Amino acid sequence: MGNGIRTGVLGSNGKVGKAIIEGVEAASDAEFTVGVDKGDSLQDFVDSQTSVVVDFTHPDAVMDNLKFLIDNGIHAVVGTTGFTQERLDTVVEWLGDDPRSGVLIAPNFAIGAVLSMRFAQQAARFFDSVEVVELHHPFKADAPSGTAGRTAQLIAAARAEAGLGASPDATSTGLEGARGADVDGVRVHSIRLAGLVAHQEVLFGTQGETLTIRHDSIDRNSFVPGVLLGVREIGSRPGLTVGLEHLMDL
Ligand SMILES: NC(=O)C1=CN([C@@H]2O[C@H](COP(=O)(O)OP(=O)(O)OC[C@H]3O[C@@H](n4cnc5c(N)ncnc54)[C@H](OP(=O)(O)O)[C@@H]3O)[C@@H](O)[C@H]2O)C=CC1
Ligand SMILES: O=C(O)C1=N[C@H](C(=O)O)C[C@H](O)C1
Protein backbone atom coordinates (compact mmCIF):
# COMPACT_ATOMS: atom_id res chain seq x y z
CA MET A 1 0.00 0.00 0.00
CA GLY A 2 1.38 3.44 -0.99
CA ASN A 3 1.28 6.67 0.98
CA GLY A 4 -1.24 8.65 -1.09
CA ILE A 5 -4.83 9.36 -0.07
CA ARG A 6 -6.70 6.14 -0.87
CA THR A 7 -9.33 7.33 -3.32
CA GLY A 8 -12.14 5.43 -5.01
CA VAL A 9 -14.62 6.54 -7.66
CA LEU A 10 -18.38 5.96 -7.91
CA GLY A 11 -19.69 6.21 -11.44
CA SER A 12 -16.34 4.96 -12.67
CA ASN A 13 -17.58 4.11 -16.19
CA GLY A 14 -19.24 7.50 -16.60
CA LYS A 15 -18.05 10.52 -18.54
CA VAL A 16 -16.76 12.42 -15.52
CA GLY A 17 -15.84 9.33 -13.48
CA LYS A 18 -13.30 8.28 -16.13
CA ALA A 19 -11.66 11.74 -16.10
CA ILE A 20 -11.47 11.65 -12.30
CA ILE A 21 -9.76 8.24 -12.28
CA GLU A 22 -7.13 9.57 -14.70
CA GLY A 23 -6.66 12.63 -12.49
CA VAL A 24 -6.29 10.58 -9.29
CA GLU A 25 -3.83 8.22 -10.96
CA ALA A 26 -1.74 11.19 -12.11
CA ALA A 27 -1.70 12.88 -8.68
CA SER A 28 1.43 12.28 -6.61
CA ASP A 29 -0.44 12.48 -3.28
CA ALA A 30 -3.44 10.27 -4.10
CA GLU A 31 -3.78 6.58 -4.87
CA PHE A 32 -6.65 5.13 -6.90
CA THR A 33 -8.17 2.13 -5.14
CA VAL A 34 -11.30 0.95 -6.92
CA GLY A 35 -14.01 2.10 -9.29
CA VAL A 36 -17.64 1.19 -8.67
CA ASP A 37 -20.37 1.60 -11.26
CA LYS A 38 -24.01 0.54 -11.55
CA GLY A 39 -24.47 -3.05 -10.33
CA ASP A 40 -21.11 -3.22 -8.51
CA SER A 41 -20.80 -3.58 -4.74
CA LEU A 42 -20.13 -0.55 -2.52
CA GLN A 43 -18.45 -3.01 -0.13
CA ASP A 44 -15.42 -2.86 -2.48
CA PHE A 45 -14.57 0.53 -0.93
CA VAL A 46 -14.45 -0.97 2.56
CA ASP A 47 -12.47 -4.03 1.43
CA SER A 48 -9.91 -1.83 -0.33
CA GLN A 49 -9.53 0.47 2.71
CA THR A 50 -10.58 3.46 0.66
CA SER A 51 -10.45 6.73 2.59
CA VAL A 52 -12.23 9.11 0.16
CA VAL A 53 -14.85 8.26 -2.47
CA VAL A 54 -15.62 10.62 -5.34
CA ASP A 55 -19.25 10.33 -6.56
CA PHE A 56 -20.28 11.30 -10.10
CA THR A 57 -23.28 9.03 -10.63
CA HIS A 58 -26.93 10.08 -10.92
CA PRO A 59 -29.34 12.12 -8.77
CA ASP A 60 -31.42 8.93 -8.24
CA ALA A 61 -28.43 6.99 -6.90
CA VAL A 62 -26.39 9.46 -4.89
CA MET A 63 -28.34 9.41 -1.61
CA ASP A 64 -28.04 5.60 -1.19
CA ASN A 65 -24.33 5.91 -1.95
CA LEU A 66 -23.86 8.63 0.67
CA LYS A 67 -25.73 6.65 3.33
CA PHE A 68 -23.35 3.72 2.81
CA LEU A 69 -20.22 5.88 2.88
CA ILE A 70 -21.28 7.76 6.03
CA ASP A 71 -22.27 4.52 7.79
CA ASN A 72 -18.80 3.17 7.04
CA GLY A 73 -16.83 6.28 8.05
CA ILE A 74 -15.62 6.97 4.50
CA HIS A 75 -15.20 10.58 3.31
CA ALA A 76 -17.14 11.69 0.23
CA VAL A 77 -16.49 14.26 -2.50
CA VAL A 78 -19.73 14.56 -4.44
CA GLY A 79 -20.29 16.16 -7.84
CA THR A 80 -23.58 14.47 -8.60
CA THR A 81 -26.44 16.94 -8.87
CA GLY A 82 -29.96 16.92 -7.45
CA PHE A 83 -29.30 18.22 -3.93
CA THR A 84 -32.40 19.98 -2.60
CA GLN A 85 -32.33 21.54 0.87
CA GLU A 86 -34.31 18.50 2.08
CA ARG A 87 -31.58 16.16 0.82
CA LEU A 88 -28.84 18.27 2.44
CA ASP A 89 -30.76 18.16 5.75
CA THR A 90 -30.95 14.37 5.48
CA VAL A 91 -27.19 14.13 4.96
CA VAL A 92 -26.58 16.29 8.04
CA GLU A 93 -28.91 14.01 10.02
CA TRP A 94 -27.00 10.90 8.86
CA LEU A 95 -23.67 12.51 9.80
CA GLY A 96 -24.92 13.13 13.34
CA ASP A 97 -23.41 15.24 16.12
CA ASP A 98 -19.96 13.64 16.04
CA PRO A 99 -19.33 12.81 12.36
CA ARG A 100 -16.66 10.32 11.36
CA SER A 101 -16.97 11.33 7.69
CA GLY A 102 -16.45 14.59 5.86
CA VAL A 103 -18.84 15.13 2.96
CA LEU A 104 -18.19 17.78 0.31
CA ILE A 105 -21.04 18.42 -2.13
CA ALA A 106 -20.38 20.94 -4.91
CA PRO A 107 -22.57 21.83 -7.88
CA ASN A 108 -19.46 22.54 -9.93
CA PHE A 109 -15.82 21.54 -9.40
CA ALA A 110 -14.38 23.69 -12.22
CA ILE A 111 -12.43 26.54 -10.62
CA GLY A 112 -13.67 29.03 -13.22
CA ALA A 113 -17.28 28.04 -12.62
CA VAL A 114 -16.92 28.62 -8.88
CA LEU A 115 -15.37 32.04 -9.57
CA SER A 116 -18.12 32.93 -12.06
CA MET A 117 -20.78 32.15 -9.45
CA ARG A 118 -19.01 34.44 -7.00
CA PHE A 119 -18.66 37.22 -9.62
CA ALA A 120 -22.39 36.92 -10.43
CA GLN A 121 -23.23 37.15 -6.72
CA GLN A 122 -21.12 40.33 -6.47
CA ALA A 123 -22.62 41.93 -9.59
CA ALA A 124 -26.25 41.13 -8.78
CA ARG A 125 -27.09 44.21 -6.71
CA PHE A 126 -25.97 46.66 -9.42
CA PHE A 127 -28.36 45.56 -12.21
CA ASP A 128 -32.11 45.80 -12.79
CA SER A 129 -32.30 42.67 -14.92
CA VAL A 130 -30.72 39.23 -14.80
CA GLU A 131 -31.16 35.97 -16.70
CA VAL A 132 -29.13 32.73 -16.55
CA VAL A 133 -28.49 30.56 -19.61
CA GLU A 134 -26.88 27.14 -19.10
CA LEU A 135 -25.74 25.10 -22.10
CA HIS A 136 -24.85 21.40 -21.89
CA HIS A 137 -24.38 18.17 -23.84
CA PRO A 138 -27.68 16.42 -24.67
CA PHE A 139 -27.04 13.41 -22.38
CA LYS A 140 -27.31 15.45 -19.20
CA ALA A 141 -29.73 13.92 -16.69
CA ASP A 142 -31.18 17.10 -15.22
CA ALA A 143 -32.37 20.60 -16.09
CA PRO A 144 -31.68 23.21 -15.04
CA SER A 145 -28.10 22.33 -14.16
CA GLY A 146 -27.11 22.26 -10.49
CA THR A 147 -24.74 25.14 -11.19
CA ALA A 148 -27.48 27.29 -12.75
CA GLY A 149 -29.84 26.55 -9.87
CA ARG A 150 -27.19 27.56 -7.33
CA THR A 151 -26.19 30.65 -9.32
CA ALA A 152 -29.81 31.80 -9.47
CA GLN A 153 -30.24 31.25 -5.73
CA LEU A 154 -27.11 33.31 -4.96
CA ILE A 155 -28.23 36.12 -7.28
CA ALA A 156 -31.76 36.13 -5.84
CA ALA A 157 -30.39 36.37 -2.29
CA ALA A 158 -28.04 39.24 -3.24
CA ARG A 159 -30.89 41.11 -4.96
CA ALA A 160 -33.18 40.64 -1.96
CA GLU A 161 -30.47 41.86 0.41
CA ALA A 162 -30.03 44.98 -1.76
CA GLY A 163 -33.76 45.61 -1.73
CA LEU A 164 -34.22 44.99 -5.47
CA GLY A 165 -37.57 43.76 -6.71
CA ALA A 166 -38.24 41.47 -9.66
CA SER A 167 -36.45 42.00 -12.98
CA PRO A 168 -38.69 44.09 -15.27
CA ASP A 169 -40.72 41.84 -17.59
CA ALA A 170 -43.90 42.94 -19.32
CA THR A 171 -44.51 39.57 -21.01
CA SER A 172 -48.18 38.68 -20.72
CA THR A 173 -48.76 36.09 -23.43
CA GLY A 174 -46.69 33.45 -25.17
CA LEU A 175 -45.91 29.78 -25.31
CA GLU A 176 -45.46 28.05 -21.98
CA GLY A 177 -41.74 27.70 -21.26
CA ALA A 178 -40.70 30.55 -23.54
CA ARG A 179 -39.37 32.50 -20.54
CA GLY A 180 -37.50 29.57 -19.02
CA ALA A 181 -37.74 28.22 -15.46
CA ASP A 182 -38.27 30.45 -12.44
CA VAL A 183 -35.62 29.81 -9.75
CA ASP A 184 -36.27 32.11 -6.79
CA GLY A 185 -37.53 34.76 -9.24
CA VAL A 186 -34.55 34.46 -11.62
CA ARG A 187 -35.22 33.11 -15.14
CA VAL A 188 -33.04 30.12 -16.06
CA HIS A 189 -32.83 28.79 -19.64
CA SER A 190 -31.47 25.31 -20.44
CA ILE A 191 -29.91 24.52 -23.84
CA ARG A 192 -29.02 20.92 -24.75
CA LEU A 193 -26.78 20.67 -27.79
CA ALA A 194 -24.53 18.01 -29.33
CA GLY A 195 -20.90 19.10 -29.21
CA LEU A 196 -21.17 21.02 -25.95
CA VAL A 197 -19.69 20.00 -22.58
CA ALA A 198 -20.79 22.44 -19.81
CA HIS A 199 -21.25 26.20 -20.21
CA GLN A 200 -23.08 29.02 -18.48
CA GLU A 201 -23.82 32.68 -19.13
CA VAL A 202 -25.20 35.09 -16.58
CA LEU A 203 -26.59 38.18 -18.31
CA PHE A 204 -27.08 41.38 -16.36
CA GLY A 205 -28.64 44.57 -17.69
CA THR A 206 -29.32 48.08 -16.49
CA GLN A 207 -29.53 51.58 -17.95
CA GLY A 208 -27.47 51.69 -21.17
CA GLU A 209 -25.24 48.69 -20.39
CA THR A 210 -25.10 44.93 -20.02
CA LEU A 211 -22.61 42.59 -18.38
CA THR A 212 -22.17 38.95 -19.36
CA ILE A 213 -20.29 36.50 -17.15
CA ARG A 214 -19.51 33.34 -19.10
CA HIS A 215 -17.79 30.13 -18.11
CA ASP A 216 -16.93 27.21 -20.39
CA SER A 217 -15.83 23.73 -19.44
CA ILE A 218 -14.47 22.57 -22.79
CA ASP A 219 -13.18 19.27 -21.39
CA ARG A 220 -14.26 17.15 -18.41
CA ASN A 221 -10.70 17.28 -17.08
CA SER A 222 -11.72 20.81 -15.97
CA PHE A 223 -13.37 19.16 -12.94
CA VAL A 224 -10.21 17.32 -11.85
CA PRO A 225 -8.25 20.05 -9.96
CA GLY A 226 -11.31 20.97 -7.87
CA VAL A 227 -12.05 17.33 -7.09
CA LEU A 228 -8.42 16.72 -6.06
CA LEU A 229 -8.60 19.79 -3.80
CA GLY A 230 -11.67 18.19 -2.21
CA VAL A 231 -9.93 14.83 -1.85
CA ARG A 232 -6.98 16.49 -0.11
CA GLU A 233 -9.08 18.62 2.26
CA ILE A 234 -12.16 16.60 3.14
CA GLY A 235 -10.43 14.33 5.65
CA SER A 236 -9.86 17.32 7.92
CA ARG A 237 -13.44 18.67 7.58
CA PRO A 238 -15.85 16.31 9.34
CA GLY A 239 -19.51 17.02 8.62
CA LEU A 240 -21.10 18.58 5.56
CA THR A 241 -19.48 21.24 3.37
CA VAL A 242 -21.53 22.60 0.45
CA GLY A 243 -19.58 24.33 -2.33
CA LEU A 244 -15.93 24.26 -3.36
CA GLU A 245 -15.59 27.98 -2.56
CA HIS A 246 -15.15 27.05 1.13
CA LEU A 247 -11.89 25.28 0.21
CA MET A 248 -10.68 28.12 -2.03
CA ASP A 249 -10.61 30.91 0.59
CA LEU A 250 -13.09 32.92 -1.50
N1 LIG B 1 -20.27 18.99 -9.76
C1 LIG B 1 -19.63 18.98 -10.93
O1 LIG B 1 -18.61 19.65 -11.12
C2 LIG B 1 -20.16 18.13 -12.04
C3 LIG B 1 -21.26 17.37 -11.83
N2 LIG B 1 -21.70 16.52 -12.80
C4 LIG B 1 -22.80 15.66 -12.42
O2 LIG B 1 -22.29 14.34 -12.19
C5 LIG B 1 -23.28 13.38 -12.53
C6 LIG B 1 -22.70 12.40 -13.53
O3 LIG B 1 -22.40 13.05 -14.75
P1 LIG B 1 -21.79 12.27 -16.00
O4 LIG B 1 -20.48 11.65 -15.67
O5 LIG B 1 -21.87 13.21 -17.14
O6 LIG B 1 -22.88 11.12 -16.20
P2 LIG B 1 -22.70 9.67 -16.85
O7 LIG B 1 -24.07 9.15 -17.12
O8 LIG B 1 -21.73 9.73 -17.97
O9 LIG B 1 -22.01 8.82 -15.68
C7 LIG B 1 -22.68 8.35 -14.55
C8 LIG B 1 -22.21 6.94 -14.26
O10 LIG B 1 -22.74 6.52 -13.02
C9 LIG B 1 -23.30 5.22 -13.18
N3 LIG B 1 -24.28 4.95 -12.15
C10 LIG B 1 -25.61 5.17 -12.16
N4 LIG B 1 -26.16 4.75 -11.00
C11 LIG B 1 -25.13 4.24 -10.25
C12 LIG B 1 -25.05 3.67 -8.97
N5 LIG B 1 -26.13 3.47 -8.21
N6 LIG B 1 -23.85 3.27 -8.50
C13 LIG B 1 -22.74 3.42 -9.26
N7 LIG B 1 -22.76 3.97 -10.50
C14 LIG B 1 -23.94 4.38 -10.99
C15 LIG B 1 -23.87 5.26 -14.59
O11 LIG B 1 -24.16 3.97 -15.06
P3 LIG B 1 -25.31 3.79 -16.21
O12 LIG B 1 -24.85 4.61 -17.38
O13 LIG B 1 -25.32 2.33 -16.47
O14 LIG B 1 -26.58 4.30 -15.62
C16 LIG B 1 -22.72 5.93 -15.33
O15 LIG B 1 -21.69 5.01 -15.66
C17 LIG B 1 -24.49 14.19 -12.99
O16 LIG B 1 -25.36 14.42 -11.91
C18 LIG B 1 -23.86 15.49 -13.47
O17 LIG B 1 -24.76 16.56 -13.47
C19 LIG B 1 -21.09 16.43 -13.99
C20 LIG B 1 -20.01 17.20 -14.28
C21 LIG B 1 -19.44 18.10 -13.32
O1 LIG C 1 -24.00 17.12 -16.16
C1 LIG C 1 -23.01 17.87 -16.40
O2 LIG C 1 -22.33 17.73 -17.42
C2 LIG C 1 -22.65 18.92 -15.44
N1 LIG C 1 -23.30 18.99 -14.31
C3 LIG C 1 -23.12 19.94 -13.28
C4 LIG C 1 -24.34 20.81 -13.13
O3 LIG C 1 -25.47 20.32 -13.30
O4 LIG C 1 -24.19 21.98 -12.82
C5 LIG C 1 -21.84 20.72 -13.44
C6 LIG C 1 -21.49 21.06 -14.85
O5 LIG C 1 -22.39 22.01 -15.31
C7 LIG C 1 -21.53 19.82 -15.73
TrEMBL record:
GO molecular function: 4-hydroxy-tetrahydrodipicolinate reductase; NAD binding; NADP binding; oxidoreductase activity, acting on CH or CH2 groups, NAD or NADP as acceptor
Involved pathway(s): Amino-acid biosynthesis; L-lysine biosynthesis via DAP pathway; (S)-tetrahydrodipicolinate from L-aspartate: step 4/4
EC supergroup of this enzyme: oxidoreductase
Sequence positions that bind (S)-2,3,4,5-tetrahydrodipicolinate: 137, 146-147
Location of the Dihydrodipicolinate reductase N-terminal domain: 5-109
EC numbers, comma separated: 1.17.1.8
Keyword presence, Transcription: no
TM ranges: none
Residues that, per the record, bind NADP(+): 38
Entries under PANTHER family matching the protein: 4-HYDROXY-TETRAHYDRODIPICOLINATE REDUCTASE 1, CHLOROPLASTIC-RELATED, DIHYDRODIPICOLINATE REDUCTASE
NCBIfam families registered for this protein in UniProt: dapB
Record-given protein name: 4-hydroxy-tetrahydrodipicolinate reductase
Provenance organism: Gordonia spumicola
Lineage, broadest ranks: Bacteria, Bacillati, Actinomycetota, Actinomycetes, Mycobacteriales
